[in-house]
Specification:
Blueprint: H1 2-15, H2 25-60, H3 63-80
Helix pairs in contact: 1-2, 2-3
Length: 128
Amino acid sequence: MRKIISALLFIFIVCNHSISFSADVLTVAGDVAVARPVGFFSALIGGALFVLTLPGTAVSGKVRESANDLFITPLRFTFCRPLGDVFYDPDSGCFRRAAPEEVKPPEESQPAVKEEEPAVKEETPAEK
């Protein structure tokens, strides 16, 4: 059990590249030991609930809201929030999609077509 906890702590510290330097050691330790594992397991449970409720949410047209509330928000809480930052805004982090007007379609380029030179048939001595 101690190896598992040590491995989880190492993964959470390494994966989270941004550390809030204004946070004290006790806040960071509590965040790593309690809040991150709770967020991770709530993302797993939320993902399972999302899959179970998907038929109902698909009928109602609320799939995106359901996925955001049950799965994406706990993932943001776990992996995007700086260590020790308890007042993090989950809508300002990673896992954000660009707005439709910000997405640029890929440039359509015509493939360069080489014009083939007509094959020149050489006459053989038998044809002369």
